[in-house]
Amino acid sequence: MGSGGSEPRRERDVLDAIERRRRRPRRKLLDSRITLSHGAGGKSGHDLVEGVFVRELSNPLLEPLGDSALVEAGSGRLAFTTDSFVVRPLFFPGGDIGELAVNGTVNDLAMAGARPLALSAGFVIEEGFALAELEAIAKSMGKAAAEAGVAIVTGDTKVVERGNADGLYVNTSGVGLIEHDLRLGPDAIRAGDRVLVSGPIGDHGMAVMIARGDLELELELESDTAPLNGLVETLLGSGAEVHCLRDPTRGGLATVLAELSLAAQVGITLDEASLPIRPEVNGACEILGIDPIYVANEGRLVAVVAPDSADTALAALRSDPLGREAEIIAEVSAEPPGLVVLETALGGTRVVDMLAGDPLPRIC
Amino acid sequence: MGSGGSEPRRERDVLDAIERRRRRPRRKLLDSRITLSHGAGGKSGHDLVEGVFVRELSNPLLEPLGDSALVEAGSGRLAFTTDSFVVRPLFFPGGDIGELAVNGTVNDLAMAGARPLALSAGFVIEEGFALAELEAIAKSMGKAAAEAGVAIVTGDTKVVERGNADGLYVNTSGVGLIEHDLRLGPDAIRAGDRVLVSGPIGDHGMAVMIARGDLELELELESDTAPLNGLVETLLGSGAEVHCLRDPTRGGLATVLAELSLAAQVGITLDEASLPIRPEVNGACEILGIDPIYVANEGRLVAVVAPDSADTALAALRSDPLGREAEIIAEVSAEPPGLVVLETALGGTRVVDMLAGDPLPRIC
Fold first, then answer.
1. Strands (E), A185-235
2. Which residue in the set B56, B155, B177 is minimally distant from A141, CB to CB?
3. Contact B72, B156 (CB under 8 A)
4. Rounded distance, CA B113 to CA B117, Å?
5. pLDDT, tens only, A281-325
6. Residue B83 above 70 pLDDT?
7. C-alpha to C-alpha distance for A208 and A228, rounded to whole angstroms
8. pLDDT digits 0-9 by tens, B91-148
9. Whether residue A84 has pLDDT greater than 80
10. I want to staple A148 with a disulfide (CB 3.0 to 4.6 A). Which of A47, A227, A240, A331 is the partner?
11. Cβ contacts (< 8 Å) between B159 and chain A: which residues?
12. b vs e for B280-297, b when ≥16 Cβ sit within 10 Å of the residue's Cβ?
C-alpha cells in the first residue's frame, strides 16, 4: 500500500476493470458441447449451472447456489449437500479419492455451520477395477468418517463396462444438523468485514498435479485434505461474529472470493503479502505459470468475520492444529461491488476474476 | 394346487435345495477384479457390499443394508438414500436417465415410509457431451421432481476427459421425513403375511433392453418409471397393516423376495399364476431366455402386509392409477427360513435365488 503514485493508478485500473465488465455481453451458453472447463469450478461451470440446472430445476432452495442447501425438516434445520469425485490419480501424497470424498462433503456441511449427521457413498466402478484398490479406498473412507465423527449410513454401487469410466468415481452426499441461529452466507457480509484463510493455499491441487508425474517435478508436498467440522466448531464457539464460511476447493481462493463479492455485491481487497503459501507451492506454480490463488484446497476454510472479531477469529483458528497457519488476508468494502482486487506485494493492484479455463482438471 | 404326487416332490425339492445351500461354502470375494455382475444388484453385488463396504464402513445404521438409512435428527426421524444411474441408452421409451434418477431416489425414500423432502443431483459428464441432451435431462428431472412433489435443492457437476465416461452418469441422493411410528422392514415380517406387487413386472428392464436395439425385437413397451410416494401414502393411509415395502429394481422381484426371506428368516411361496406380467414382456423374456421375475422395475412396489390386511391393501393399491394392476402374489411361512419357492402355473415348484449373473447390465 501507498507509494504516492500507486493510488491513482489503482483507482484507474479498478474503474477500467469495472467498465470492461459492464461492457462484456451477458454470458450465454454458446457451446453446444460440454468441455472440460465446464467442470473446472470457475466461470464456465457457473454458466452451466445457471444456464441449465437452475433454469430447469428452479426452486427457492436451489437458488442460493451454495455448496449445501438448507432444508426445514419438522422442527429442525438441515444442511444437505452432494459432491462427485473424479480425482486422478486415485491415490496421491496425503490422501486418496475416498478420504477426499468424505472430507469434501463433511466440509460442505461444516461451511453451512452444520454438524455432519450422516453421509452416503455412491460408487461408479469400471469393470476390471482391482478389488484391493477398492478395499483401500473403502478403508480410507471409513477412517476419514471416523475422524470427522460422522457415519456413512447408505450406499450404492454400479459397475460399467471396461472403457466406460476411468477406474472409479465416488459421490458422497451428506446431511447435517444446524444447531444455532446464525445465518451464515453472502447476505451477512458487510463492508469492513475481514477475510481469513485457515492455512497455506494450493497444497492439494499441487500435490495432485505432481502425483500425476507428468510435470517432472519432484517435491515433498502433501494434499491438505482434512475434515473441517471441528475447526468450524472452534471458530463459532470463540464468540467471533462469523458472517460467511467457504472451503476454497475447485477454482481455489480466487474463485471463492469472486463468487462472494458477486453474491454479496461488495468489493474485496486481497493483500498478496499476507497470503500463506508454501515455498514449494509457489515454486511449482511459477514453473507451471499458474497462480496459487486458483489452485484447489481440500482442508482450508475462508471465513468472513465482523471487523472487531478478526483477532478473536484468528486466535480461534490458530488454536486448532488445522488452523495453526491461519492469516487475515482481505478486507471487504462497499465499493466496487462485485469485484475482487489483489494488492500485490510490490504495491500494484489487479482485478481477480473467477477461474476461466481449466489449468488443473480432475483435481477433486 | 397339488395333484397327489406333487406334494412329496415339492418337499423333497425344497429339502434338497436347503441341503445344497448348507453345503455351499460361505462365499468369499475370490475375484481380484470388479466384474459387471458386481453391479447387477444380485448375489455378487451383495457379496461386494458385505465383503468390502460393510466391513470397512461398519456402523449400526449401515448394517441393515436397506435402500435408505434412518437417521435421528434432533426430534425427528429422517430417511437418507443415494443411487447412481448409469442406464444405457440415456433416453428410452417411457423415460430417460433424469426421470429415472429422480423417481429412483423418491421411491427409495417412499419404501422407507418417508415423505421425500429434498433431492440432490450429482453429474459426471464426459467432455463432448451434447448440451441439448443435458438440457433435456435436466428438464426431465425438474418435471419428475415436480410430479413427486419434491425439490432438487443442491447439485454438483464434474466433467471428465473424452473416453472417461459413457456420456453421463447421474447420482441422486434424497432426504425424507418419517412422520409416523411404523417400523417398516424385514424385522416386521411374520409367517402368514401376504406379499403384493403394485403392477406388471419387468416393463422397465425390457423397455431398456429393446431400446438398445441389439435384440432385433420391435415391441411397444414403455418403462414403468414413476414416483411411488403417493401410492405409498395411499397404502399406509388405508389402515392396512403394512410390514415391509421394497421397490424391485435391479435384480427384479426375485432378488427382492430372496433378500427379504434371508433378512427375515422366513419362507416365501410365490404363486406364478398370480404374477402380473404383460404378454409383450413374457414373450421378449422367452425369446431371450430371461425370467421376468429377475427383470428390473422402476415404478412398482412390493408390499408385505398382515394376512387380514391383504384385501384392504389390494384395494388401496388398485384405487391409485399406479397400482391399478396390483395383485397378491405370495405368502410368507415360517419354514423353510431364507428360501423363496415358486409354485409354477403347472403345479411344480422351484427354488428362487437372487440374480447370480448379469443378463441385463446398465439397466438403471
1. 194-197
2. B56
3. no
4. 12
5. 999 999 888 999 999 999 999 999 999 999 999 999 999 999 999
6. yes
7. 20
8. 999 999 999 999 999 999 999 999 999 999 999 999 999 989 999 999 999 999 999 9
9. yes
10. A227
11. 34-40, 361
12. bbeebbeeeebbbbbbbb
Can you read off the three cell numbers belonging to residue A341? 482486487
Query: What one-letter code names the amino acid at B194?
Result: R
- Domain at B9-23+184-352, CATH from 3.30.420.40, 3.40.630.40, 3.90.650.10, 3.40.50.300: 3.90.650.10
Strand partners, B154: B120
- Give yes or no for A344 touching B (CB within 8 A): no
Interface test with A, best of B34, B107, B119, B147 (most A CBs within 10 A): B34
Cβ of B287 under 8 Å from any chain A Cβ? no
Given the candidates 3.30.1330.10, 3.50.80.10, 3.40.50.1100, 3.80.30.20, the CATH classification of the domain at B75-178 is 3.30.1330.10
The question of ipTM being above 0.85 is answered as yes
Q: What is the domain partition of chain B in residue ranges?
A: 9-23+184-352, 75-178
Looking at chain B, which residue has its C-alpha nearest residue A65? Answer: B154
The hierarchical CATH code for the domain A6-25+182-352 is 3.90.650.10
Q: Are A153 and B120 a contacting pair at CB < 8 A?
A: no
Query: In which residue are the cell numbers 479498478 written?
Result: A14
Give the gap in angstroms from C-alpha A209 to the nearest C-alpha of chain B: 16
Q: What angle do CA A96, A84, A178 make, to 5 degrees?
A: 100
A138 touches chain B (CB under 8 A): yes
